[in-house]
Amino acid sequence: MPRTPCDTADERRLNLSDYAEWLRGLSEGLLDEIHRLAEEADDETSRELLLKITQLISLNQSMVALHLLSFRLHMKENEAAIDRELYEISEYMAEILSIHRREAESLRKIL
Asked: 85-90, long-range: CB within 8 Å, 24+ apart, which pairs?
């Protein structure tokens, strides 16, 4: 098994995009090797099997990318909802502060 970019303490500092890039490179290398084996396979069944494996891997990668995109979209929707709620809260707080200021002014006039 190849070393991961996170095998040593210093390497653990790598960020997720570096690790994802390393995994992507490893995956592409394995796919290339399977393609090469498929081209060199002696019988049609082995060749077909290896090609189907590469197609399955590609489909799985597409599904993972689609799930990641869906997850990111949900995160953006949640962030937008939180932003709207925080804006509403800030409006309420501003209104409360305004009311307290008017009450304080009224009290000063009375006293």
From this structure: none
CA atoms of 30 and 41, how far apart (whole Å): 16
Lowest mean pLDDT among 41-45, 72-76, 80-84, 86-90: 41-45
The Cα 36–Cα 107 span in angstroms is 86
How many other β-carbons are positioned within 10 Å of the β-carbon of residue 50?
Answer: 19
Q: Alpha carbon 58 to chain centroid distance?
A: 19
Q: What is the pTM of this model?
A: 0.56
In whole angstroms, give the CA distance from residue 73 to residue 65: 12
> What is the predicted pLDDT for the residue at 5?
53
Distance of CA 97 to the CA centre of its chain: 40
Tokens coding 105: 């002014």
Structure tokens at 79: 């962030």
pLDDT at 45: 87
Residue 72 CA neighbour count, 13 Å, CB half = 6
pLDDT at 17 over 70: yes
